Amino acid sequence: MSEQPLHDARGQVVVGVDDSTESAEAAAWAADEASRRRTGLMLVSAYSVPHRGLLAYDVMSEDYAGVLRTQQQDLHRRIASGLLERHPELPITSAVETGHPVDVLLGRSAGAALLVVSTRERGRFRRLIGGSVAIGLAGHSPVPLAVIRPGAAQPRSGPIVVGVDGSAASQPAVALAYQEASLRGAELVALHAWHDDLTVEVDEQGLIGADIDEASLRQIEQALVSEELAGYAQTYPDVVVRPVVRKGDPITELLELSADAAMVIVGSRGRGGFKGSVLGSTGQALIAHADAPVVVVRPLD
């Protein structure tokens, strides 16, 4: 295992690690994903040195930053050793930097195929690692972000579930979902959940129809799904697709499907999201509550 220079993660899977059990599970999931993609894995950790003005600073080692760095490097060696037992041919590199975890992970994952982080759970309450690291990354990462909740890292044989809503934000998510389904030999479930306030009908005069019956609305929504999935069959002829169109809340429907899914993939913002928001409510809810690993994909700039 070697340390990599900045921005040398092109095409690899990057995983943020610390000394928690949840982090170890996420690293194992990331290693499986890197092996499946036949690419390398980069372990990334961030650490911070207390400000000189703090009272405790004077009693610290003169080379406290060096001590912290060495601890993280030792942690990386232990993690890599365990991963190589399962994937002996997997190229593993290491990066340890001082700074905020979000900033370090964003910098190190530039050009990566996938960025992976864990979340933590304490008692009855769920909280994101570092307070809001996963949310911060989901809203700003230019590469797909996989968030692994406790217990979700175990190999799952279910379908790949992707949220489809006809927005530009869901198009990269659909593309990644086809890729993942093909890599895993899994079924692809394309879910589109709609409700009345997200559906409009525009006639030839540009007027919104006020009296559209539910059957007509369902046809409109089914056509939206078909249009968004069009073109992928030729690229991925091996992928079996099951469109699911339901009237209901997208969050509820995706959470229900996550129980048996190998992965749930969504865009960072969907139809009906607030302009300027970096992460929609669907992505936030899935990161906090989904049973399966959740991958959030930002729209193309």
TrEMBL record:
Keyword set, alphabetical order: ATP-binding, Nucleotide-binding
For the keyword Nucleotide-binding, the answer is yes
Classify the source by domain of life.
Bacteria
Q: Which SUPFAM superfamilies match?
A: Adenine nucleotide alpha hydrolases-like
InterPro entries for the chain: Rossmann-like_a/b/a_fold, Universal_stress_UspA, UspA
Kindly indicate whether the keyword ATP-binding belongs to this entry: yes
The similarity comment for this entry is:
Belongs to the universal stress protein A family.
Q: What is the lineage of its organism?
A: Bacteria, Bacillati, Actinomycetota, Actinomycetes, Nakamurellales
Annotated ranges, domain UspA: 12-149, 159-298
Its source organism is Nakamurella multipartita (strain ATCC 700099 / DSM 44233 / CIP 104796 / JCM 9543 / NBRC 105858 / Y-104)
- List the Pfam families hit by this protein, alphabetically: Usp (PF00582)
A molecular function (GO) term: ATP binding
Report what the protein is called.
UspA domain protein
